[in-house]
Fold:
Amino acid sequence: MGKPTIPETEFTFPGSTGCPGCGANLVMRYLLKGLGERTILSIPACCWAVMPGYWPSTCLKVPLLYTAFEATGAAMSGLRAALDVKGIKDVTVVGFAGDGGTVDIGLQAMSGAAERRTDGIYVMYDNEAYMNTGIQRSGSTPWGAWTTTTPVGSTHGFKHEAKKDIMAIMQAHRIPYAATVSVAHPEDFIKKVAKAKEVKGFRFIHAMSPCPPGWRMNPMHVVEVARLAVDTHAFPLYEIESGKVRITRKGKGAPVSEYLRFQGRFSHLTDVEIAAIQKAIDENWQMLLAKEASGT
Structure:
């Protein structure tokens, strides 16, 4: 047998208050395996603001700072500045926020931290809605999805706006490193996190985080759904290093219907609407291939 590619040391422990099958638990687990114990987390209002457990208990082996919903980027900058003043250089500062606290409420603070070149890693665990407060739509909710604020059968109906392209937004900030990761591909995940750790400046990790209650799916299918997101190109795995795009896993190019069928939040869609989603995914995939080919 070959050498294990996933570190055995654990920095997350039993006691999380997350839902059964929570993808965000796996995101945190693989993140800390890639970063190690010399890590400090800044966590805003989100699922992970309650998941570590009730004080004085915690399911994490690293220190964390809770902050306001909109302030993750600013907190990262403050933590880094404080550590620098104390001469502590070997601790990785991490902002760990959901999609609502990143693409919507926290976008300004994250943009400021990126523009200032704060030396830290911002991780967005993307469950594609405001799950902790009742499954409300966010800027990261995909077109066609049901949420409690885009209910099927209402005047507006399901979400009719496209998912915000946060990776393109971060690329526009000219940060040194950004990557997408999936809990279905832990080796790729941990390798990218380890690479990000060695880079100086502001880095960004976009982690897909399936949410069983919010996506209306069986908890046992979390990893399978995450894998199908990659295989259907609904969530491509790639990295942007010094402005250059590199796809790290091509996927099988399976029809997006295979990914959607596990999720009750898409069960209302017609064949025509599923075809529209497939067309958008195909176009986005071709654009990503073109970026990789052109080196931009």
About this structure: The mean pLDDT is 95. The CA atoms of residues 17 and 51 lie 5 Å apart. The domain at 23-294 is CATH 3.40.50.970 (Rossmann fold). The chain has ten helices and eight strands.
